[in-house]
Structure formats: C-alpha cells, structure tokens
Write a structure and sequence with these properties.
This protein is mainly α and about 190 residues long. It has seven helices and no strands. The chain has helices at about 1-45, 55-60, 65-75, 85-100, 110-130, 140-165, 175-180. The chain is elongated.
Amino acid sequence: MNLKHLLVLCLLVLTSACQQTDEHELIQQQKALQARTLVLNEIKNGWHFHTPALRSDTQNMLRNWSELRQFNSEIMQTPGSSIGGFQKKAKSLSKKALELSKSIPAEFDKPEVKSRIAALTTKINQINLYLNIREIPAKKISTLVADADAAWSALYREMNEIVQKSKIPLEEGESDILMMQDPSRAIPDLATQ
C-alpha cells in the first residue's frame, strides 16, 4: 500500500513540475511575442519615405534610368505586416541601391552624384543589417530610415542642380580655358622620360 501511495505521490509531483515548466515556457513565449510586436510597431511607425521632387527637365533626363525608377518603386512600397516583410524589403532595397551606382547616366556620372548614391546605399545597407540581428534596435532603424530618406532627397537635389547648372551658358573664352586645363591635351615632357 505504501508503494502505491509513493508512486501516486511521485506521479503528482512530476505532473505538477511539468505543468509549471509548460506555464513558464508559455509566459516566456508571450513576453517574446509582446517584445516583437512592440519592435514591429515602432519600425512601422518610423518607416516613412517621402518622394523627393524633381524638376520636369531633370525628369526628362532621367526617364531612361530604369534602375532609379525601380529603386523609387521599391522604396515607396510599404513592407508586409511582419518583421520578415521588413527584412525582405530591406534586402531588396539594398540590391536596388547597389544597382544605382552601376548604371549612372553620363550626364550625372559625377563625383557629387556618386557620393550621394554611396551615402544612400550605406544607409539602406545599415537598415538591412540592423533588421537581421537577433535583438532588433527599433529606434536605431527609425533613425536610419530618416537618414536614408534625407540621403535620397540629397541625391535628387544634386541631380536638379546639375541640370540647372548645365543650362547656364559658357562665357566667351571659357571653353578655351577648360580645354587648356584638360590634362589629356598636355604636351608630354620628353626630358623626364
């Protein structure tokens, strides 16, 4: 009889221990879910990109730059309603931003534009990086999104400025001075060779 009571008592203790472990795991899962939900909501609230304005003449010059159109389309689409959706969006934006620097139209293939594309690409890559770590810093991502938006606007402002400067006529003799400054036209120094 004592053996039966001992067995029953052991089973009750084991059962209650298992239930406590299950409850503890359930509580931990609920806390993790709440934390991910808070992070997701903060990222959603900070994920705002504003389409920069382009002058009509700049738009005409950029109409054949398909990589820029694809980047603009991608950045303006809102990601899904999960962290995984934001991760996919950040990865896609990283790829599109990298493609921008590989296909710059000749009119805009200048250091000023390249540096702004590099800054934009860096910010997008940082967003991608921070979205793919275990403990996602939502405030940092919101800051990076604002920085990427500012870099995107700076790129557009620079392109507008390039187009506006190209419309300024050269003064008399300015083209001759520019040709004289061209190092490819210099006479080679045969004495140093």
